[in-house]
Amino acid sequence: MITKRIIPCLDVKDGMTVKGINFVNIKEVGDPVEMGAIYAEQGADELVFLDITASHEGRKTFVDLVKRIACHLNIPFTVGGGIGHLSDIEALLSAGADKVSINSAAVRDPELINKMALHFGSQFVVVAIDAFEKDGIWTTFINGGRIPTTRELFLWAKEAEDRGAGEILFTSMNHDGTKNGFACDATYRLSEELHIPVIASGGAGNMDHFVDVFTRGKADAGLAASIFHFGEITVPQLKAYLNKYGIPVRL
Predict the structure, then answer these.
(1) Residues paired with residue 137 on neighbouring β-strands, in sequence order
(2) CA dihedral 142, 145, 147, 150 (to 10 degrees)
(3) Ramachandran assignment for 123, one of left (phi > 0), alpha (psi -120 to 50 degrees), beta (any other)
(4) Which one of 25, 86, 129, 149 has the largest count of C-beta atoms within 10 Å of its C-beta?
(5) Does 251 fall in a domain?
(6) The CATH number of the domain where 92 resides is what?
(7) Where in the sequence is the domain holding 151, given as residue range(s)?
(8) What is the spatial distance between Cα 5 and Cα 60, in angstroms, rounded to a whole number?
């Protein structure tokens, strides 16, 4: 049986880990190098690093910081933010990233997904989708949730898969930072319609929320930030809880 993955996320701005609510009210929470090392030691299955203002500010992801974080990890490491060319990806993989996440660049140039998959392999390609639901319609946003697009969540996710994405990282902007639970219905639909893994993000507030997203939402992985950053739940506690409910995890 395939195990469900627990993935802490380091949203980084100006070299520091930060967290906000609904993509705003952002506050610093710690050093990403130290935090990444702690999560690896705790037994996290993967780590995600997102340079959340790189695309908006029109600059590249901090390659040096990626190197420093990667030096302390023994788990898969996904990096995203400000990526627009194959050369950016090569630099990040050389710096220690195991996978690369693209979001805004993929929306602006969908062919980039094809090029990445062809050049590096689909297993290296994570397409992140930030989407906001209003009146039953999920609209994809870019530039760290600042700019709405004409892309509808489910159609865009399917196109990304068809172009060669290896995983979809879906963040519900409605749920982000609220700690009221994941967008399980949307996650379930993505999981049913796609043939690649779906990582659910946005809204984790307690361990039952992970139970819900893995059972009702059918997610392959659950990503969270603040509940781990502030010590409300530890990775070992969460995995023990999921195991008790019969959800397969790597202990």
Answers:
(1) 134
(2) 60
(3) alpha
(4) 129
(5) no
(6) 3.20.20.70
(7) 5-244
(8) 28
List the catalytic residue out of 11, 51, 88, 176.
Answer: 11
Residue 25 lies in a domain: yes
Is 220 marked active-site?
A: no
Residue range 29-55, pLDDT digits in tens: 789 999 999 999 999 999 999 886 655
Kindly report the CA angle at 35 between 4 and 172, in degrees rounded to 5? Answer: 50
Provide the number of structural domains found in the chain: 1
Give yes or no for a contact between 54 and 61, defined as CB atoms under 8 angstroms apart.
yes
Q: Is residue 77 part of a domain?
A: yes
Cα–Cα distance measured from residue 138 to residue 23, given in angstroms and rounded to the nearest whole number: 16
Backbone angles phi, psi at 152, to 5 degrees: -90, 140
Catalytic (active site) residue 130: yes
Whether 165 and 196 have beta carbons less than 8 Å apart is answered as yes
pLDDT for res 94? 93
pLDDT band at 27 (very low <50, low <70, confident <90, very high): low
Neighbours of 74 (CB within 10 A): 8
Q: Find, among 130, 117, 199, 131, the residue nearest to 162 by Cα.
A: 117
How far is residue 16's CA from residue 89's CA, in Å, rounded to a whole number?
Answer: 22
Predicted TM-score of the model (pTM): 0.93
Q: Of 51, 88, 130, 212, which residue is the catalytic one?
A: 130
Give the angle 85-89-94 at the CA atoms, nearest 5°: 145
State the Cα–Cα distance between residues 128 and 121, nearest whole angstrom. Answer: 17
Radius of gyration in angstroms for the set of CA atoms belonging to the chain, rounded to a whole number:
16
